[in-house]
Amino acid sequence: MLKQYKLKDYNFRLILLLVAISIFGILLVGSADPALQKRQMVGVIGGLILMFIVSLMDYSWILNFYWLIYILNLGLLLLVLVTGDTKKGASRWIQIGGDNGFQFQPTEVAKIMLILFFAMFLMKHEEDLNTLKTIVKAVILLAIPLALVIRQPDLKNTITIGIIFCILMYVAGLSYKIIGGILLVVIPLILIAFFLITQTDLEIIDSYQKERIMTFLDPENEEYSESAIQQNNSITAIGSGQLTGKGLNNNKVSSSNKGNFVAEIQNDFIFAVAGEELGFVGCFAILLLLFFIVYECIRMGRRAKDSAGHTICCGVASLVAVQSFINICVATGLLPNTGTPLPFVSYGLTSLFSLFIGMGLVLNVGLQNRNYYGGEKAYEHRIHRA
């Protein structure tokens, strides 16, 4: 297998982009909390090594165990509900190695495992994808892990996984007629749920989740003013950086970072650190790197040997794109606070390792293009939608 791979087919552009965005992450996490910089650096190095190992593993061989991956995913999500540590009313982490060990968040790994599972599942159902039986089966298979995620409770990752699933179904060739029909049903349901959450006392979601939504809708309300301070300070921090920022590790007490005016700034609001210390130039550079990472994933997906490889690449690309969009919108006040990390930049070793595993899979898909088959025509993704 390894002898058939060719060095020229290895996507070094993607690796350089990942190294560059990870360096931004190390610097920004170090500025937000110097005590975490070394761990972030170790995480990046370990993630790159893990990515390289995964990139040499044939993804087609891995997909042979797609049902095992699905069951293992359910097992991890069940484990976190039974033995997970509870913080701020949520049980999302498993403590490994006692008090001196580290925490593991299964939901981050679940995103990659579900992408792998549905890549194989959708390829096996290419011919009957647009039948009611296949669609219902896919939705049920998604609903089981989603129920475990939302039980933690973890609304942000429930939404993220749901969006990625929709993208995977679209990429696999779901008919426009079915998409339109689903939207006609889903959009009214979302509007009804939104009305019930914001205008009634029904406990559809947890109280802290409702508070975040209400804070976003009515930040001037005294009842939610305390919750709005964090997001308002994030917006102020980004704006205060202007064009070039105040500089990394500046000692200005008035800054939102050094003055501790924004909680979880090393994770959920890392973009506020970028805006304040690196300015518009630094923020634009981060956005550009994330854009090209997503682009490279999609580009390799279009040259994949089969639809499963194409789905894996698009799934990982959508994961990076969706999480980036949510994190930056939260930091800039365009969405309610969700606690979503910025890929490769925010502190969080489980998220970091999971993303690098995803990128390793993308690199392996790229290795198995037309050159891998000695010049034969590679798989070309063509969808005929009704």
UniProtKB/TrEMBL annotation:
Q: Which keywords does UniProt give here?
A: Cell shape, Membrane, Transmembrane, Transmembrane helix
**Cross-referenced InterPro entries:** FtsW/RodA
Q: Which Pfam families match?
A: FTSW_RODA_SPOVE (PF01098)
Q: Where does the source fall among the domains of life?
A: Bacteria
Location of the protein in the cell: Membrane
Q: Which GO terms describe its cellular component?
A: cell division site; plasma membrane
GO molecular-function term, one example from the UniProt record: lipid-linked peptidoglycan transporter activity
| Broad class of the protein's primary localization | membrane
Keyword Transmembrane included in the entry's annotation: yes
Q: Name one GO biological process term.
A: regulation of cell shape
Q: Could you tell me the membrane topology recorded for this protein?
A: Multi-pass membrane protein
Residue ranges spanning the membrane: these are: 12-29, 41-59, 66-84, 104-122, 134-151, 157-174, 181-198, 278-298, 310-335, 347-367
Q: What is this protein called?
A: Rod shape-determining protein RodA
* Protein source organism: Wansuia hejianensis
